[in-house]
Amino acid sequence: MVKKTRYWKEYWWIISFIKPYKGTMFLLISCGVIISLTAMLIPRSIQFFIDRILPAQDLTLFLYMLLLLLAVLSVMILATGGKNLLQRIVREKAAKDLQHTAFSHLRKLGFSYFEQNSTGQTLSLLNTDVQDVQRIYRDYFPQIVLQSITCVIAFFIIASMNLVLSLIIIPCFLVYYIAGPWVERQAFLYLRSFNEHRVDVEKDIYETMSSMQEARAYRLEAWIRKRFIERLGHMNKDWLKSIIFAHTRGSIRRLTIYLAILILFVYGSHLVRVGVLSLGEFIAYYFYFFIVMNALTHLVTATTEQHTLMFQAKRLYDFCHLKPDVVESSNPKDLRFIKGSITVQHIHFSYPTYPNALKGVSFQILPGEHVALVGESGCGKTTLLKLLGRFYDMSKGQIFIDAIPIQELSLSSLRSNIGYVFQETYLFGTTIRENIAFGHPEASEEDIVEAAKLAFAHEFIMELPKGYDTLVGERGYKLSGGQKQRISIARMFIKNPAIVLLDEATSALDNISEAHVQQALEKLTQGRTTITIAHRLSTVQNCDKIIVMDKGRVVEEGTYDQLLQRKEGLYRLVHGQTVSVEEEVRA
């Protein structure tokens, strides 16, 4: 049998989102109590009519009873309207808070989370899982609370009417609770398997859309379709099995109800015949019995279906309790202006799957200095840039900006003063104007145009059909690589950072595009502290200093001419690159 206490921690965490609205929740429960109490008066009125009014043919008493019922129904209608309104307020606000919490936590997680979890999995978590778990607020929890109130009140009434008759029908419920748990377990297990397969299916859909070009280039459409159909088949198979067991559970529940009705009719008729119950009490008892059974049926169904959601609730709970890799200081320093000096002292860093990525790296950069990081792939150059922006925190050592440890700076202060230009530029699927303004959302139209001019982007933008209002498409697919890079550089001019980090910003461009981008980069880096990671060593000849890295260490640093004269690290890199170019030309 599945232990229902297994997910108590996760369940109370989900329910905790209602806590800010406990006043509204109290009013909601009060309305539920009023509705239940007024509903209980109707069977009593029928009993009174049969036992008192009908034998005496008392018309006056009958009219009074009708007026009382009208008053009761009016109160019930008002309470029901209040309950529906309050229930919607609580569930929608709690659901909104849950979604906001999940999304906000995603923003806090470090790069390690995104490198270890696919985009499809994260989208499934934030879309499907959040929406399903929100049903606890929208459907199940309010229903469980209100139906529980109805059950307690109605059972108390029938027990007070005839305790023996009430006790006799209890074993009928035990039949369900003996056979029900096994059936519920099977339904739950298949539904959990269905949810797991659904995540895979949604991941496949996302990856299929993202890899359309590669799939067609490698003629893998049939393989992708076959894999998708197989996973879809597994998902549907588990769904059908969960439905079968769910209906079996319902059949067992109905059997117990019908058995209880049969016992109630036989024994209740006997009690009427011997005078223990009046005819009115017997009929009222029947009404109360169906009220109890209806409430119990809804209660059991809501509890069971809610339980099936707890697997997704656990995934959401685990996600929202992941500790971010980078945590801001409790009392961070907020610097409006950074001069741009950088000091790296004996830093060590390891990835979960790649230990010793950096081993005791140290160097110093003066304000306004242009420094290049060079070395073979995997030597730790990009890792250094990630540590500078605190996308990760180093294992040992320290990084200082303007003589302040970066852990003491607020993340907003640190990152607002650092500008990144990556090899692959991400553009939002909106207009060019909004993509440039992403560097500074409050920028004026004049600032946006000036930034585009400085990035040598204004000319090609004005040649587009709608100029700055041109939609660039998803990830900027309507623009060329060089155009996208110049848009990203325009963002940096808008942002106006003190430190610029260039991660192979021109390595994926053709010669003409590279020339345009290089012009824009030269303007961008004037007067700013700049660190460049360059694949083509010819582009870093004019840097103030070159730092050569190898296997996570700094092996030498100096100017381009100084390092070539030493004939060590940089010399070997330049020589190897020259040989590669010559071999390519001969080929």
Describe this structure in words.
It is a multi-pass membrane protein. This protein is elongated. It has two domains: 13-162 and 277-320, Up-down Bundle (ABC transporter transmembrane region fold); 342-586, P-loop containing nucleotide triphosphate hydrolases (Rossmann fold). The chain contains 20 helices and ten strands. The two termini are 70 Å apart. Helices cover 65% and strands 10% of the residues. The protein is an alpha/beta fold. The strands form two sheets. It has a six-stranded mixed β-sheet with strand order 6-7-8-3-9-10, with helices on both faces. A four-stranded antiparallel β-sheet has the order 2-1-4-5, covered by helices on one side. The model is unreliable at 1-5 and 578-587 (pLDDT under 50).
CATH architecture of the largest domain: 3-Layer(aba) Sandwich
Task: State the domain count.
Answer: 2
- Gyration radius from CA atoms, angstroms: 35 Å
Average pLDDT confidence is: 81
CATH fold call of the largest domain: Rossmann fold
Membrane topology: Multi-pass membrane protein
Main location: membrane
Enzyme class: hydrolase
Protein name: ATP-binding cassette subfamily B protein/subfamily B ATP-binding cassette protein MsbA
